[in-house]
Amino acid sequence: MSESISDAAAHGTDSPARSVSLARGLSTKLLVLTVLFVMIAEVLIFVPSIANFKLRWLEERLGTAAAVSVVLVEEDSQSLPRALQDQVLMAIGAKAIAVRNDGESRLLVVAEMPPTVDEHIDLAQTGPISATVGALETLFLGGDRMIRVFGKVGESDTEFELVIPDRRLREAMLVYSRNVALLSLVISLFTATLVYAAIDRIMIRPIRTMTRSMLAFARAPSDPRRIIEPEDRSDEIGVAERELADMQRQLQNTLGEQKHLADLGLAVSKINHDMRNILASAQLLSDRLSGVRDPSVQAVAPKLLRALDRAASYSEGVLAYGRTQEAPPSRRSVRLKQLVDEVEDLLGVDAVPGIEFVNAVDAGFEVDADSEQLFRVLTNLSRNAIQAMAGDDSAAVVRRLTISAERTGSVSSILVADTGPGLPQKARENLFAAFRGSARSGGTGLGLAIAHELVRAHGGSLDLLESRGGRTVFRVTIPDQPVRLDEARGGMRRPA
Asked: Which domains are present in the chain?
C-alpha cells in the first residue's frame, strides 16, 4: 500500500508519469469506494428502520397507557387526586389518555389539552410510505410538535388514544440514529477491509506486478529477466499475465531479429564496398578471357561473365533487402527451361557427387516474369534443396532435385521438388521469416524470405506443398500480366 506502483525510484528516476502516489492508487480508491457504497446501503436500510423505530416507540407508550387505562376505568379516574394523575401522565410522557369503546370516547386523564394536534397516527392503518415520511418529519422538523396516537392494544376491542409531545420521541430517534451511524461506520470499515484484502490479493497486487513488469521491460527489453512470470491461475488476470508474457517474448525476439538484421546490413555494407572492387577486377580479367580463341574458354567465358554480374547484383540485393526495398519486376516472356539450365550451371551441381539435377521443363514453356528475379527465386530454392540433401552422403539414398512447370489458363506454376529429409517443424512455422525460417544450423533464412518477396512482387505466391522425409515440394505461382483495355484497344486501332 505505501510503496509506489513503479519501482522507478529504485532505478534513479522519479518521473511522475511512471509512478502513482498512494492517494491516487487503485488501493485507496477501492477502499474509499467500498466504505462509500456500504454507507449508502446502510442509509437505504436506515430509512425504513427509523420509521419502524418510531412506530414501535409509540406502540410501547400506547401499551403502557392501555394498562393504566384499565385500572383507571375500574377505579373511576375522576376520583384520583390531581397529583396522582399528573404522575401517571409524566411517567408515560403524555398530555392526555382516552379510551373509546362501543363508539363512545371517554377522557381518562388529562394534564392540559393542547390547542392543536400536528399529527394523527392510526397504528393499525399506517403504511410503510406514510410511516417513513412521518419519521423523517419528526427527525428533522420535530421537537415541539404534538402527536395523537390511537389504536387497539393486544386482542382487546377497546381502542386507546394518547396525546403526546414528540420531544422525547425525537430524542430517542436521534440516539437511535447515532447508534445506527456508528454501527454502520464500523460495519463499513470492517466490510471494506475484508473486500479490500480480498480484491487486493486477487486483482490489485497482480495488476501492480504487471505494471512494474511493463515498466521494467520498457527500460531493458533485451533482458530476459524482465519478462513477467505468470501465476498459475485460470481467471482473467491469469490470462492477461500469460498474454503479457507471450507479448514480451515476441517483442524481445522481434527486437533481437531487428538488431541482427541491422548488424547484418552494416556488415554487408562494409563488405560490399570492397567486394564490388574485387568483382570489378574479376570482370576485367574475364573480359580478357573472351579474347582467347580456345573453344573451351569461349564456352566458359560468357557463363563466367554472367555469374560475376549476378554476384554483383546479389550483393546489392542483400543491401536492398536490409532497407526493405526491392526493384519492381521488369516482366518479359522468359524461356523457363533455359533459365533453369543457368541455375544448374551457377549452382555447380556436377561438383557435388551423388546429387542429380533434373530439368523437367518443356522446351517451349514460357513464363511472364522478370528473368533476373525469377532466376534468384529458383536459385535460392534449389540451393536450399541441395544443401539439405548434401547432409546425407550415403550412396544408397536417392538425392534428386527436379524442377518442372505447368500452365493453367494465364497462371504459370513452377514446382521445385527434392528428395531431402524435409523441413523441421520450426522452419515450417516460420517459413518465410528472416532469421527464423532456416532449416539448418547457422542459416539465416534469408533465401526463402527474399524468394517470397520477389514472387509476391509478381503478384504470385510461394507455397510449401509438401514436406516430409524423402520429399519436399515448393510451388511458385506467377500469373500473367493483366492486359490494360485502353492499351489493347489502342493497339487494335493502329494501322497495319
From this structure: 26-189 (no CATH), 222-325 (1.10.287), 332-485 (3.30.565.10)
Q: Give the pLDDT score at 298.
A: 66
Rounded distance between C-alpha atoms, residue 335 and residue 330, angstroms: 15
Query: Can you read off the three cell numbers belonging to residue 193?
Result: 477491509
Terminal C-alpha separation, the chain:
90
Coil, strand or helix at 469? coil
Residue 428, C-alpha cell as written in the block = 515450417
Residue with grid cell 550412396, as numbered in its chain:
395
d(CA 93, CA 218): 76
In angstroms, the CA 203 to CA 236 distance is 10
Q: What is the pTM of this model?
A: 0.44
> What is the sign of the dihedral through the CA atoms of 259, 261, 262 and 263?
positive
CB 385 within 8 A of CB 353: no
What is the amino acid identity at position 142?
G
Query: H or E segment at 396?
Result: none
Q: Residue 42: is it exposed, middle or buried by C-beta count within 10 angstroms (0-12/13-18/19+)?
A: middle
Q: Is the CB of residue 443 less than 8 Å from the CB of residue 333? A: no
Indicate the pairing of strand 411-418 with strand 400-408: antiparallel
pLDDT, tens digit (0-9, with 9 covering 90-100), for 395-415: 788 889 999 999 999 999 999
How far apart are the C-alpha atoms of 164 and 361, rounded to whole Å?
A: 116
Q: Write out the three cell numbers for 181.
A: 451511524
Distance CA(341)–CA(49), nearest Å, equals: 99
Task: Measure the CA–CA gap between 248 and 251, rounded to whole angstroms.
Answer: 5
Alpha helical stretches, state H, 76-162: 82-92, 128-141
pLDDT in tens, 126-159: 888 988 898 888 888 888 899 988 888 877 778 8
Dihedral angle sign, alpha carbons of residues 392, 393, 394, 398: positive
CA 278 to chain centre: 54
CA within 13 Å, CB half, 451: 25
- Residues 382 and 400: their CA atoms lie apart, in Å, by 11
Q: How many residues does this entry show for the chain? A: 496
